[in-house]
Design brief:
Elements (H helix, E strand, L loop, with lengths): L30 E6 L3 H10 L10 E6 L2 H10 L5 E5 L7 H11 L7 E6 L7 H7 L4 E4 L5 H38 L5 H16 L4 E8 L11 E6 L9 E2 L7 H10 L3 E3 L2 E7 L4 E8 L6 H45 L4 H20 L9 H10 L12 H4 L7 H22 L7 H11 L20 H16 L10 H10 L7 H13 L11
Parallel strand pairs: 1-2, 1-3, 3-4, 4-5
Antiparallel strand pairs: 6-7, 6-11, 7-8, 9-10, 10-11
């Protein structure tokens, strides 16, 4: 166990794979230079002239191709070739020029520096070649001495490195914009945190183990509070979500120091990011890339941190808005429950069953055009509004024990239309789908029947919204197996038998069959025995 505040990195060493021991030095992998020439002596002399060359601490790896076709195939396999020393005349008089055109066109490789070398300058005039082809330099073999070749290669590597950084920065910014847009879609801090860790690996273009820690400051007295480990990947994946960081955790000291400094800390192999939000949250991300980060990568991660703060603030506001909407729905349901005390536990069970049924329909690929992410997120909560129209039903009808008269039944049926009207008026004040819009569908359609004999509008089959067809099944089952003012509870087997006979007439067959799979698998899970 380490001392509190210290940092022990020995646990990161993987003794089971000794071949990875040099992985940290892989960022010093050689620059790749390809020679495309049909004369073997040219390959030998070039290799001899460039032997021992180093640039930015990286050596040179030389690849050889003896024809334009072979050069094209080699570049396909090695798109990270930095320089190509290209002969013009090989299998044809213009083979090199055709290869250059294919590299820029077919392979869309704009980074490799193409240096044209020719022993017959008159065959491909310099002015014409430079204008017509995307060639970066043009040299006659007779003038390209070892010294000049060294200068050409170093200059080309410097240009290639600059272009590569620009290209990687562009890709990184694209991933940041794309990644943060995806993060706005997450509905919880856990999902958000996992998404952040995934995006870091995407921005760097390499896998990186990491963990995200968070704490919220509600006052100055909380500045020294412990943080929570919210998410982890790779070596950190075994950390329990929302685990409290403890004094003996290997990264305790490092994370605490970065929280105190409130800035990014790069010291390979343990790089740490910090960002804060307007809502009082602060985050620290520890990750372990396989090699030291370049300066441009550090800058990209700084931009990423700024975007993460905004993304989290948006997520927080979304959650607050969603909680407010749910509270409104529950208040409306409570209003109906206040009139009819028997529906209190009923609406809770309907919500639970509805969520289970929607999840199973999605799992089985049923109704793919209707079961969207929004549908899955909202229908369960919206289902508790199915009887909200009962607030307008007179007490002598709503609370009457026993069988209702025909006139009373007609009055009772009005709750479906009235509930839909109430909720639609409220839903029309909100753009797009909402708990209220789904609630209006459910309130107005959960007494419709699949064969068109239901009420209030006599809709049939797909005319009935899917949300209504789902809650129709759930509502009837729960009403059958629990006590009501006018009936005793039915055994689950009897309720299932009745509902199976009503498939295709009262209930949507696809919805009902999926629902019965759930109930028959664990019938006791859906019955409140305290009401029996």
């Amino acid at each position: 166990m380490t001392e509190p505040g210290s940092f022990d990195d020995s646990w990161l060493v993987d003794d089971t794979n000794a071949s990875d021991a040099g992985r940290e030095l892989s960022y010093l992998r050689p620059w790749k230079l390809m020679i495309v020439d049909d004369e073997p002596d040219v390959h030998a002399m070039t290799g001899l002239a460039l032997r021992g060359l180093l640039f930015r601490g990286r050596s040179l790896e030389i690849l050889s191709a003896y024809s334009a076709a072979e050069g094209f195939e080699l570049l396909e396999r090695h798109p990270d070739i930095a320089i190509m020393l290209l002969d013009v005349v090989m299998e044809t008089d213009d083979a090199g020029l055709r290869l250059a055109a294919r590299i820029r066109g077919e392979l869309n490789n704009q980074l490799v520096r193409i240096v044209l070398r020719t022993g017959q300058p008159g065959q491909a005039p310099e002015e014409e070649v430079i204008v017509k082809y995307d060639i970066n330099d043009y040299k006659s073999k007779t003038e390209l001495t070892a010294r000049k070749l060294f200068v050409v290669v170093i200059a080309s590597l410097r240009t290639y490195e600059s272009l590569l950084i620009i290209d990687l920065s562009r890709q990184g910014l694209h991933r940041i914009l794309e990644g943060t847009e995806n993060l706005y879609q997450y509905s919880s801090l856990q999902e958000f945190s996992s998404g952040v860790l995934s995006q870091i690996s995407a921005i760097l273009g390499v896998g990186a183990d990491g963990m995200l820690c968070a704490k919220r400051l509600s006052s100055k007295a909380d500045r020294e509070q412990d943080f929570d480990v919210v998410a982890g990947t790779g070596r950190f994946a075994d950390l329990t979500a929302r685990e409290k960081a403890s004094e003996d955790h290997p990264f305790f000291g490092l994370v605490r120091r970065v929280f105190a400094l409130a800035r990014n800390h790069f010291e390979h192999p343990y790089d740490v990011l910090h960002f804060s939000t307007q809502n009082g949250y602060r985050f620290v991300i520890v990750f372990t890339p396989p090699w030291p980060l370049e300066d441009f990568q550090k800058d990209l991660l700084g931009v990423f941190c700024d975007r993460m703060g905004s993304a989290f603030d948006n997520l927080y506001l979304y959650q607050q808005l969603r909680a407010s909407n749910e509270a409104t729905v529950i208040a409306l349901a409570d209003l109906a429950e206040f009139r009819d005390e028997s529906t209190g536990s009923h609406i809770v069970r309907v919500k639970r069953l509805t969520n289970a049924l929607v999840a199973r329909l999605h799992e089985k690929g049923k109704f793919p055009g209707d079961v969207s992410d929004t549908f899955k997120a909202m229908v369960g909560v919206a289902s508790i509004l199915h009887d909200v129209g009962k607030v307008a039903t007179p007490d002598h009808v709503l609370l009457k024990p026993g069988i209702l008269t025909q006139e009373e039944r007609t009055i009772m049926k009005e709750h479906a239309r009235k509930g839909q009207d109430i909720l639609e008026r409220a839903a029309n004040l909100i753009n797009g789908e909402s708990y209220l819009s789904f609630g209006a569908q459910i309130a107005g359609g959960h007494h419709e029947r699949y064969d068109g004999s239901g009420y209030p509008r006599g809709l049939k089959e797909a005319e009935i919204p899917l949300a209504s067809r789902i809650v129709a099944v759930v509502d009837v089952f729960d009403a059958l197996v629990h006590r009501r003012l006018y009936k005793e509870p039915w055994p689950v087997a009897k309720a299932i038998s009745y509902m199976r006979k009503a498939s295709g007439t009262q209930f949507d067959p696809e919805v009902l069959s999926t629902f019965l799979e759930i109930v028959e698998a664990s019938p006791n899970d859906w019955v409140d025995n305290s009401e029996l």
